[in-house]
Amino acid sequence: MKQILAINMAMTLDGKVARPDGKWHGMTTEKDKRQMDIYRSNSDALIVGKNSITNDNPFVKLRFVENAINPRPVILIRRGSLTPDKRIFEESDHTPLVICTRQNKKEIEESLRNRVDIQALDSDDIEPKKVMGILSRLGYERILLEGGPKLNYSFFRQGLVNRIHLTIVPYLIGQRTLPSIADGDVEIPGYEKADWKLTSCNKEGDEIFLIYDRKS
User: Fold this and answer.
1) Residue 103, CA atoms < 13 Å, CB-side half-sphere
2) pLDDT, tens only, 59-70
3) Which residue blocks in the chain are alpha helix, DSSP H?
4) Over the stretch 19-31, which tens digit does the pLDDT of each residue have?
5) What's the pLDDT score for residue 1?
6) Where are the alpha helices (DSSP H) in 21-125?
7) Strand stretches in the chain, DSSP E
8) Contact of 172 with 34, CB cutoff 8 Å
9) Distance (Å, whole) CA 19 – CA 17
10) Are 178 and 18 in contact, with CB atoms under 8 Å apart?
11) 180-206 burial string, b = 16+ CB within 10 Å, else e?
């Protein structure tokens, strides 16, 4: 089976994915939360970044899809560690997998002892292709990335994302410094190819749920 990596993001009418306080809360309806659980229930692994856990402490256990198997949480930590009081360590049906660098492996072992499985990369940074390689070797083929804009960008830049789940919410924020779904220092290679095909478009109330699949 071909490995599929999808991202899931909610975006305002003016393309923002965070509030002025840097968080994403109270902007989507229960319909979006239900749809997010459907995406998760169709995934083997759920990738989240350290910043998302620190800032938002997200729910990872499925709440709106009955009798579904929760995907395994995969936490990417480039520097430092996390405290063990986060929901991701309390709610999951699986032992979370942490992918880190050789520099912070020991710190994570000490702070999250007996709470996670650890895979350390032989580098000083989180390299998306190596992350996908680890997940492939572990048998995870349907992967959902729920990271922030910088993490999304790193996977887009290496051409690893196959699908985009995008919820359009009826808000305008206007602040130009707020992030988009993928933020980096330079353009994503091949961006001008229009390489994405709209494969689904559904309206629920004032929200629109879009799915784009990579053409090639």
Assistant:
1) 8
2) 888 988 988 889
3) 30-41, 50-56, 87-91, 105-111, 128-137, 149-157
4) 898 777 667 888 8
5) 67
6) 30-41, 50-56, 87-91, 105-111
7) 4-12, 45-49, 72-77, 97-100, 117-120, 142-145, 163-169, 196-204, 207-214
8) no
9) 7
10) yes
11) ebbeeeeeeeeeeeeeeeeeeeeeeee
Written as six digits, the tokens of 126 are: 């989180």
Please calculate the CA angle 32-38-42 and round it to the nearest 5 degrees.
145
Q: Tell me, what amino acid is at 65?
A: V
Q: Is the dihedral of CA 166, 167, 173, 178 positive or negative?
A: negative
Spans of the chain below 70 pLDDT: 1, 25-26
Q: Give the integer Cα–Cα distance in Å for 12 and 47.
A: 23
C-alpha to C-alpha distance for 46 and 148, rounded to whole angstroms: 13
Task: Report how far residue 56's alpha carbon sits from residue 17's, in angstroms, rounded to the nearest whole number.
Answer: 13
Tokens of 81: 């560690």
Distances (CA, A) of 119 to 12, 151, 202: 36, 18, 39
Backbone torsion region of residue 124, taken as left when φ is above 0, otherwise alpha when ψ lies between -120 and 50, otherwise beta: alpha
Closest CA to 96 of 84, 105, 107, 106: 84
Q: Note the pLDDT of residue 120.
A: 96
